[in-house]
Amino acid sequence: MFKDISAQSFFMGILVAFAGFASSFAVVLQGLEGVGATPAQAASGLAALSIAMGLCGIVLSLWSKMPISVAWSTPGAALLAGTGVVEGGFSAAVGAFLISSALIVAAGLFRPFGRAVASIPPSLSNAMLAGIVLPLCLAPVTAVGIDPLGGILIFAAWAVVGVFKRLWALPAALAVFVGLTAYHLNGSFDPSSMPGLGAGLVFVSPEFNLQALISIALPLFIVTMASQNIPGVAVLKVNGYEPAPGPLFASTGVFSLLSAPFGGLAVNLAAITAAMCAGADAHPDTTKRYWAAAFGGLFYILFGLATGVITWFVSLSDPVYIKAVAGLALIGALTGAATAAFSDPRTREAAGVTFLVTASGLSFGGVSGAFWGLIAGGAVLAMNAVFRKDLP
Questions:
Q1: pLDDT top residue among 142 and 235
Q2: Average pLDDT, stretch 124-133?
Q3: What distance in Å separates the CA atoms of residue 122 and residue 341, rounded to the nearest whole number?
Q4: What is the domain partition of the chain in residue ranges?
Q5: Which of 89, 143, 193, 388 is deepest in the core (most CB within 10 A)?
Q6: Is residue 102 a contact partner of residue 52, using CB atoms and an 8 Å limit?
Q7: HSE of 145, CA atoms in CB hemisphere, 13 A
Q8: CA distance 308 to 32
Q9: Of 265, 309, 251, 235, which is closest to residue 55 (Cα–Cα)?
Q10: Cα separation of 224 and 255, whole Å?
């Protein structure tokens, strides 16, 4: 196994971890704080996710000898950001994380359950995802309205660098964010307040209630499976690998369970970073590319140990900047989900209803719009199937 290690896979692993972490850690922090996490709890959740997805990626890649990259659920974090604090606060959110993780394990272990999840019309699940991320994707525009110079600089860095190298667009925006924060602080903070390196994990006692189950657990499970795990398997297959999906799903669910008591929402199979690990840039030999994913997991763990410093720095910045970076990180998810949601004319109306109800932020009976959007879209889809004769 160790003879398959190469410098090419090592450096690809560094790039994968940096791109995966830098592109969306802001979304994770926004999501955890959105459901009531304190800064310390949000930092703990970020660290727990980084360590869990690093360990899971290493185990799965070395066990299967396939480039299986694991990531946190960015769409799930976007869902949390729009859900708001439920009854029971962050403890109830952690209880929902545990339930969602258990459902992912069940989807992997029990084939009928996994097939039932896969049978949710892709147009509806993608419309729900588009509705979830839309409010966050508006943050860069809002940032320009609040601070024109700072907002434009962040957006320009993302847009200009993205023209030449899409992979570096988000790190460029993040670099501008760091520069703007340092400029505005201008020596006004005490360096002795900087935390030391270390995971800084904070245990959160879970609480279980119906509102958290419906508003967080079920939508989190659906978006994680539909927008992350299932596409993650598809990326591997496109690159010539034939993994057994069930054990992979169950494994990500187990590591999600381990991270949940410390604030981790979910880890899952990656799609974008999986494509990086599974491509020719990772290694010319397809049988040796698994080390790129394994090294990526190692560096995820190292980033996880530095989350205390990262969240400390973010806490010193203007929130509008980090929201702008988070919004830019989700534009790709929004456009991809919207394209898939509205591509089929037979389900376009139902997808539109799902998208609008979800994006509206409707909260009825204490339950978030993501759930009601899926219910409303499913009802329209069912009625069209029964009564509409003009649809093909």
A1: 142
A2: 81
A3: 7
A4: 2-387
A5: 143
A6: no
A7: 5
A8: 15
A9: 251
A10: 14
Mean pLDDT of the chain: 84
Q: For residue 375, how many C-alpha atoms fall within 13 Å in the half-sphere facing its CB? A: 12
Six token digits for residue 256: 């999600």
How do residues 283-303 score in pLDDT, each as one tens digit? 888 888 899 899 999 999 988
List Cα–Cα distances, 294 to 22, 56, 68, 320, in angstroms.
18, 9, 8, 35
Tell me which DSSP letter residue 229 carries.
I
For the entire predicted model, the pTM comes to 0.75
Task: Determine the residue type at 106.
Answer: A
Q: Two tokens at 169?
A: 């667009």
Question: Mutual orientation of helices 39-64 and 7-34 as an angle, nearest 10°?
Answer: 140
Distance separating alpha carbons of residues 326 and 134, to the nearest angstrom: 12
CA distance 19 to 54: 14
Selection from 145, 139, 131, 133 nearest residue 158 by Cα: 139
The sign of the dihedral angle between the CA atoms of 6, 12, 14, 17 is: negative
Q: Alpha-carbon distance 135 to 334, whole Å?
A: 10
Joined tokens for residue 192: 């002795």
Q: What is the pLDDT of residues 194-249, one digit of tens each?
A: 665 555 789 999 999 999 999 999 989 988 887 788 778 877 876 788 888 889 99
Q: Which tokens is 210 given?
A: 């119906």
